[in-house]
Amino acid sequence: MQAIDTKNKKSVIFGLLLFLLLALFVINISLGSVYIPAEKVLKWLVGMGIEKEKWHNILFNTRLPQSLTAAFAGAGLAVGGLQMQTLFRNPLAGPSILGISAGAGLGVAVVVLLMGAINGTALSAFGVFGSVTVTMAAFVGAMVILFMVLFLARKLKNNAMLLIVGIMVGYASNALVGLMQFFSTKDDIQAYVVWGLGSFGNVSWEKHQVFIPVITLSLLASLFLIKPLNIYLLGENYAANLGLNVKRSRLHILIVVGMLTATITAFCGPVAFLGLAVPHMTKNLFKTADHSVLVPAVMIFGAALALLCNVIARLPGFDGTLPINAVTSLIGAPIVVSVILRRRRLVD
Amino acid sequence: MNKTTKQQLLSLVNLSVGYSKDDALHSDINVSVNAGEFTCLLGPNGAGKSTLIKTISGFLPKVEGEVWFGKERIENLNEQKKAKLVSVVLTERISVPNLTVFELVGLGRTPYTGFFGKLTDTDVQKVYDAIKAVGLAKFAHKSIDKMSDGERQKAMIAKALVQETPFIILDEPTAFLDFPAKIEIMQLLLQLSRDHNRGILLSTHDLEMALQIADKIWLIGPDRKLTEGVPEDLVLSNDFNDFFERDGIHFDKHAGNFKFHKSVQKPIQIVGEGIERCWLEKALNRIGYIDSNESNDLKVELRKDDNAEIEYQLTKTGLSQNHQSIQSLIEQL
């Protein structure tokens, strides 16, 4: 009977989360520097059109793509973080733990800083062309690191070793970026720093033609990893004894998380803490370790939290929109601290 | 059960384990485990028990020789097949927040479940049966990180049960447990081998427990060839002495346990009978005296006093004293 009760409870929480996600999505589209009445926005959203051409443009070309970016990025980072925490059995693992987002940063640094230092003009000054180049560079950088990690994953038997290598690769990338900054002009460094602050607002409809399909595919692929993730809860040895091909499953998980992190970082910049904090909040909320609940739940929760952060970043008064990284870190850091404190109590 | 119907579940042929050929920890291992047989792998810490267990489980590559599960060599088994032949319970502590006993044990059904790992009604029934069999029925929906080490180990055994393998390997399953929990787990395992005809291989350094329960013992020690036999034969052939004895520790063949050597033993004469005498003698042994009829000047006699209570009369160089307890007696000595 207890099992049925908890099942009902979980369905209710799922329903509430979905409602929250929808509400935050609408709020995201309704709020902005230009005031558009909420009822008009709702009508527009259900396809009833809107009087002013200008309003339509703002809603369709600015707010809708940005909200979609936030939702998909949030879902992707959260499910990536969950998988890393389970695979490495480490509560402090996140999607950036393998150095993939550091690799993206390195790629961007090469384009923004190195090119600037060599040519004398930074690519970021080239408007749309510059923005596409930066995204490409970030993606290439992330992919290089991802392939390195995958290559090592085939060689290394032990997950802990892989984790250490990933962290070290991240440090090395950051060191290279630091080195490039030393030789760069103030403007280029400024451009790099701005990229590093993260934003959900840089993904246009053209970019969405890549962003949404890649993230959607990776999210669907995560659903297919539910069984191996559950088995991984018991650690590699037990997992192997239960019939799991440990190395192959690990490779699958790394590819999915790698694609998510690489794509999201390339398009939005490094977004901190979401991928780390959301899995913990979701586990606390559902009081379960079962990935058939957690995987879909962290996606919804992650999307909702990213939308909430996006709203906070654009609250009236912060007219120019705050850097998203500042908001996610301010929300994420206390959660991570509470996790550590709770862990300690368990150990004591 | 007669000998011909015994089904061989595991056999090791000329097996070497360790890290490389030149540096093998143990070599020429030739032993087997049959269905319904409880085998203990016994040896002091650092003897290589874990290495052997991990090699048999397939977590470490073997150095040389063959490992057979029934009629299949370990190399020819993929993960899926192996998962249905052998299950393991390891030393490592599993602590996952919010993972319930039911979910943990349910993972034992992994080799039989479909793509998403969903349990069928039959699976669910089997999981509940196993949880009941290990005595955790009340805690089925309790989170394992809120349970004691012993309960958690029982849950892991239930996991091995629902895996429905003919052979179960346990690596020091009782290492972290207190004495009653140890006994409970061992009896549970013994019952499994008897009632369900499972073959069990368990590593331990607890000699007394192994002596009482094991059908067969594999003795292993650093730089010694693995010796196999039924416990009683090993006792009689001095093998326990050879494997475990060090300075100051002596294996008592009569009692089947270890005793501390006392360098100097003083003679004392003990007169009396029954349980009180037995414990009196233990106490005197502990403080370095040994029962001897030749002792003329030291004697303890068990007597009943006027109220029919036991008292201990100590006679020391002709002077007698009465003591109400062993404590006050040995304080006098």
Structure characteristics:
heterodimer; A: 348 residues; mainly alpha; ABC transporter involved in vitamin B12 uptake, BtuC; B: 333 residues; alpha/beta; Rossmann fold; 6-stranded mixed β-sheet; 5-stranded mixed β-sheet; 17 strands
Provide a concise account of the structure shown.
The complex is a heterodimer of chains A (348) and B (333). By secondary structure, chain A is mostly helical.
CATH fold-level topology of the largest domain in chain B:
Rossmann fold
In the CATH scheme, the class of the largest domain in chain B would be Alpha Beta
The CATH topology of chain A is ABC transporter involved in vitamin B12 uptake, BtuC
The low-confidence parts of chain B are none
Q: Number of helical runs of chain A?
A: 14
Structural category of chain B is: alpha/beta
Strand content of chain B: 25-35%
How many H/I helical runs of chain B?
A: 11
Radius of gyration of chain B: 25 Å
* Count of distinct strands of chain B: 17
CATH architecture of the largest domain in chain B: 3-Layer(aba) Sandwich
Share of helical residues of chain B: 25-40%
- From the N-terminal CA to the C-terminal CA of chain A, the straight-line distance is 33 Å
Characterization of the model:
The complex is a heterodimer of chains A (348) and B (333). Chain A has 348 residues and is an all-alpha fold. Chain A has one domain: ABC transporter involved in vitamin B12 uptake, BtuC. In chain A, helix 3 runs parallel beside helix 8, helix 4 runs antiparallel to helix 7 and helix 5 runs antiparallel to helix 11. Chain A starts with a helix and ends with a helix. By secondary structure, chain B is of the alpha/beta class. Chain B folds into three domains: 165 residues, P-loop containing nucleotide triphosphate hydrolases (Rossmann fold, 3-Layer(aba) Sandwich), CATH 3.40.50; 71 residues, no CATH class; 67 residues, no CATH class. Chain B is elongated and about 85 Å long. The N and C termini of chain B lie far apart (56 Å). The mean pLDDT of chain B is 86. At the A-B interface, helix 1, helix 9 and helix 10 of A face helix 2, strand 6 and helix 3 of B.
